[in-house]
Amino acid sequence: MAQAIEEWYKQMPIITRSYLTAAVVTTIGCSLEIISPYNLYLNPRLVVKHYQFWRLVTNFLYFRKMDLDFLFHMFFLARYCKLLEENSFRGRTADFFYMILFGATALTGIVLIGGSIPYVSETFAKIIFLSNSLTFMMVYVWSKHNPFIHMSFLGLFTFTAAYLPWVLLGFSVLVGASAWVDLLGMIAGHAYYFLEDVYPRMTGRRPLKTPALIRSLFAEEPVVMVRAGNVRFAPPPLLEEEEEEAHQD
Predict the structure, then answer these.
(1) How far apart are CA 165 and CA 167, in angstroms?
(2) Which of 245, 141, 126 is nearest to 179 (CA)?
(3) pLDDT the model gives residue 221
(4) Which residues contact 16 (CB under 8 A, 6 or more apart)?
(5) Diameter over CA atoms, the chain
(6) What is the pLDDT of residues 140-165, one digit of tens each?
(7) Helix 131-145 vs helix 93-114: angle between axes, to the nearest 10 degrees?
(8) What pTM, to 2 d.p., does this model score?
(9) Is residue 188 a part of any domain in this protein?
(10) No. of H helices and E strands in the chain?
């Protein structure tokens, strides 16, 4: 069992493995009171006035208590982050890292802006950890890239992957969780999907081109795309009758 888990962990792509490890270590550290969540949560005042810039990162690593909800989000993180990195972003580790960076930046910006808007500022002020929202963003992007995959929710009903974010949002509402956490992830995910996939098809421009600095951080192996025009097939072997006719000619 332990060997199987170790093998599964080693086979994870680098970004998924790094994020999952950081999230589990941080959450366990807080549960054992080795780390204090008060040093991790997003606090704009402490970031700006006291230069505690690490909060811009650590608020994405803590997933609250180690309960069923924690296991639920770890499952989605390990599954959909891995699927994105291995399939949609195969051979494009830098682009995948840039997607996560874009999502984290967009979520932080939404919370900060929302906290300054009357009538909703109190709601956004309560969102001090964005780890669940970032995970939900990955689920949303995956669903956009794989809209026709058939899925089942707890064996109760089936649906296509395009509706997965909405099914999970409905489930969160049913169990009494804040819908804003999932909605923020959907907003950030849709913003990325539009700018990366929809807008380039409409205009031929790609506004989310990964910076050269980020590309230099990752050694990527080129993915060879096989096309019919680039492949020369050897002629099939001659049958005995055809060989005889060839010799006679």
Answers:
(1) 5
(2) 126
(3) 53
(4) 77, 78, 81, 82, 85
(5) 93
(6) 999 999 999 998 877 778 889 999 99
(7) 130
(8) 0.82
(9) yes
(10) 13, 2
**C-beta of residue 164 within 8 angstroms of C-beta of residue 182:** no
Beta strands, E only, the chain: 150-153, 157-160
Site of tokens 């006291």: 50
User: What's the pLDDT score for residue 222?
Assistant: 52
The domain of 162 spans: 2-219
Position 51 in a domain: yes
Side chain identity, residue 35:
I
Query: Which element (helix H / strand E) includes 179?
Result: helix 179-193
Tell me, what CATH number does 116's domain have?
A: 1.20.1540.10
| Number of domains present in the structure of the chain | 1
Residue reference for tokens 């590309």: 215
- Reading the block at residue 107, the tokens are 């979520």
Q: Which two tokens stand for residue 60?
A: 């994405």
**Residue found under tokens 């960076």:** 101
Q: Is residue 241 part of a domain?
A: no
Closest CA to 141 of 201, 202, 98: 98
Write out the two tokens for 149. 């995959």
Q: How many residues does the chain have?
A: 249
